[in-house]
Amino acid sequence: MIDILADDSIKILIPVTNRYGVRQSASDCKLKPNESKDIIGVFIFNKPFGNEMFKLVASSKPLNLDPIIRKSGQIRDRSVFEDFELLFADSFDMLTRNKSPQLPPESIYTHSLVFEVLPKK
Length: 121
Description:
Blueprint: E1 2-4, E2 10-12, E3 50-59, H1 66-70, H2 83-90, E4 108-117
Antiparallel strand pairs: 1-2, 1-3, 3-4
């Protein structure tokens, strides 16, 4: 699950990074059909204020979006990434969006929740 903030910056919410900087593995986030998991944690909302989006991305294969986000989509060796990861990387660059791999509709599921972050009154 990623968080797209009001200033268009992106953070990864799941897999979770613990307080020691160790990220949970993608395999720890795997769900079986009709299985659900609760997210335990506290979300603190602050600046930037405005519309924000939580985007859940589910795939039959583990995804690693962290290196793509850290480098704003600038990746060197495209051979190590899955099709969705390449599509996500290409979304950072307007010139490559039409060259992205085509994904079969059943290969990926996304769900978005848009909300507004306001300053505390």
